[in-house]
UniProtKB/TrEMBL annotation:
Region named Disordered: 1-20
Gene source species: Oharaeibacter diazotrophicus
Low complexity bias: start-end ranges: 1-13
Keywords: Membrane, Transmembrane, Transmembrane helix
Ranges annotated as spanning the membrane: 30-50, 325-343, 350-371, 377-395, 402-422, 428-447
GO CC terms, sorted: plasma membrane
Signal peptide as annotated in the record: none
InterPro entries xref list: Uncharacterised_IM_CreD (IPR010364)
Alphabetized Pfam families for the sequence: CreD
Source taxonomy: Bacteria, Pseudomonadati, Pseudomonadota, Alphaproteobacteria, Hyphomicrobiales
Identification of the protein by name: Inner membrane protein
């Protein structure tokens, strides 16, 4: 007798549970890393504040040197100041004319022709960590004044006091004057402190030779001023003539031309520069004569021409620009590490990402600290080698494999090099940043096309 057996149907094989749910998926980690990148803005802002504090310290040093040497020099003049009296109200009383008030005013008369030829012998002065460009200037100013006539005195003029007329020269920092020799109509004239009129301007003035305005009514007169003075930072000249020509030369190779008009001619050389400005009266918003009681010498604010002795490299400006790329920079490093991680069987904890982010923040601290000592370029090399080396070593040890380590080193090196290029090549910074971002996104897109972003695929698939 044969026994019959009944086969029990096999139970369906259970699917393996997900690998850990959404919170352990690549998508969740991507979100956490993005939030971490935003949180790291806070320590970057602290570095930004440190940069501002150091830049403020630099400005204090510049002010100290300017106080001890001389500050930026601004020359105005020579101009002619002529007192006159004018009736401010008049009428008739009992059929007879009368003047109620007579007051004294001062006419400011600008020259017909003005020229300045100057040479700035520049050098640097060092205090603490900082170097400041200073200069010793030699300048010759020449001016020709036309006849002084009724057109220079508006209003109901009752008298012109030509005997009390003076020449006025504005010089912003009198402490920088070494010598000043004035000749009026071929005669040496004595200079005194003060511009010769109320109004807050700083400078010198000189009385005219007796009878000069009366004797030269037909032809006017010439003025020559030879100056030797010190200054720092910049040198500005007011084009006071109906026609003005300013020529400046210097041994400083990094001029920053500034003021209301750029040079008509300029020549830049490794050992200095030469520049010439030609400014007609029509090119400036200042008349040839006005009354000192209503307008001051500040009418030429924004109308001067000149040069700033710019530092060849403002390290604080470069650190500032580097910090502005901070979010993109940290995000790019995180992106490189994240892609290497998801293509590896090993994992990096989010806390370790935070530590990597703090290392990247210290890149800016190292950059700022070393730049003050050895300059921006060498400091950038030190900071990038230090932080890039640490992050590369960590990625290699955490994820394993020489290939991943080499890829990380190459990617970080390219990223640091690109950031340096963006900082130094301001004109193409936007294009370089845009192309870099596009290339990085393209690489990530294709490198992660097989990644299970949901984290729910069965093990082994």
């Amino acid at each position: 007798m044969t026994a019959t057996t009944t086969e029990t149907p096999a139970a369906p094989r259970a699917e393996p549970p997900p690998r850990g749910g959404f919170l352990r998926s690549p998508t969740a980690k991507f979100v956490f890393i993005a939030l971490l990148s935003l949180l790291l803005i806070v320590p970057q802002l602290m570095v930004y504040a440190l940069k501002d504090e150091r830049a403020g310290r630099r400005d204090e040093v510049v002010a100290t040197i300017a106080r001890d040497w001389a500050g930026p020099q601004r020359l105005f003049g020579p101009v002619l100041l002529v007192p006159y009296t004018v009736a401010t109200s008049a009428g008739t009383r009992d059929g007879l004319p009368y003047t109620a008030t007579v007051e004294t005013r001062t006419a400011v008369i600008l020259p017909e022709r003005f020229a300045l030829a100057g040479d700035l012998a520049a050098e640097t002065r060092r205090l603490s960590l900082y170097e400041v460009p200073v200069y010793g200037a030699t300048a010759t100013l020449t001016a020709h004044f036309g006849p002084v006539g009724p057109e220079h005195f508006p209003g109901d003029v009752r008298g012109v006091d030509r005997a009390r007329a003076v020449l006025s020269i504005g010089i912003s920092d009198l402490g920088g004057i070494e010598t000043a020799d004035l000749a009026v109509a071929g005669t040496s004239a004595s200079l005194e402190s003060g511009v010769g009129v109320a109004g807050g301007a700083v400078g010198l003035h000189a009385a005219l030779p007796a009878g000069l305005l009366d004797a030269t009514t037909a032809g006017g007169f010439d003025v020559t001023l030879a100056l030797r003075l010190k200054g720092s930072g910049g040198f500005q000249v007011a084009p006071v003539g109906r026609t003005s020509e300013v020529k400046l030369a210097s041994n400083w190779p990094h001029p920053g031309f500034s003021g209301g008009t750029l040079p008509s001619e300029r020549a830049l050389r490794p050992d200095g520069f030469e520049a010439t400005w030609r400014v007609p009266q029509l090119a400036r918003n200042v008349p040839q004569t006005w009354t000192a009681e209503t307008e001051g010498y500040d009418r030429f604010d924004g109308e001067t021409v000149g040069v700033d002795l710019a530092a060849p490299l403002d390290l604080y400006a470069l650190v500032d620009r580097a910090l502005k790329y901070g979010l993109m920079f940290v995000g790019a490093v995180f992106g490189i590490v994240f892609v290497l991680e998801i293509l590896s069987p090993r994992r990096i904890h989010i806390v370790q990402y935070a530590l990597v982010g703090l290392v990247l923040v210290f890149f800016y601290v190292l950059l700022l600290a070393f730049a003050e000592q050895i300059g921006f370029g060498p400091a950038y090399a030190v900071a990038s080698l230090a932080t890039g080396g640490v992050v590369t070593a960590f990625v290699g040890m955490q994820l394993g494999g020489l290939v991943r380590t080499a890829v990380a080193a190459g990617a970080f090196g390219a990223l640091f090099g690109l950031l340096y290029a963006i900082l130094r090549l301001e004109d193409v910074a936007l294009m370089a940043g845009a192309v870099t971002g596009f290339v990085l996104l393209t690489v990530v897109l294709f490198a992660t096309r097989r990644v299970d972003w949901s984290g729910t695929a069965p093990a082994g698939t």
